[in-house]
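Please check this protein record:
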Amino acid sequence: MLASQNRGKIQELKELLADESVEILSSDHIADWPEIEENGKNFAENAMIKAREGMLRSGLICLADDSGLEVEALQGAPGILSARFAGETKNDERNIDKLLAEMEAVPDEQRAASFRCALAIVTPEREEYLTEGTLRGKITRHRRGKEGFGYDPVFLVEDFGRTLAEMNSVQKNRISHRAQALRNAIPILKELLKKAQNTDDSSQSGE
């Protein structure tokens, strides 16, 4: 189970697990899914909070991620507050406006930033795992591109000479912080699925 209602995340996970005979459920499949308070001090803690809650409510192996933007010139901000950088109500455009305003006087050579993602896995047996992914780039001075979401229009991937918003979903998903964290999690998930299948086979055989 993926503790998320984000269709893009769900589809990405399905593609990465395409070779496995497994059904991916989301929090949409859980009645009265609550707004989970993400009160951790970093991405890893918030991801684990969501994964634990998802496992308790579903009884299934649960994944959850937490991610955001860290800008060196802003001492790591907006960080875990990325989605609400401009206020409690999530608004991508206002977040970008605030970021560009605070970065206006920062020279081009000092605009380094990173997208970071922490992905937590929690099993019904209370086993816990964590993987991470990082995408490095720099903050542009103006929006570029129409794809993606969040800070994608102002996050330049220098090796490609394009912002994430100038890439299609296939290109972005090859390099994104979230895709990296998911790929790092695949060996763990495959081993957990194999263990669960062996347990089921043993139960059915009466062992």
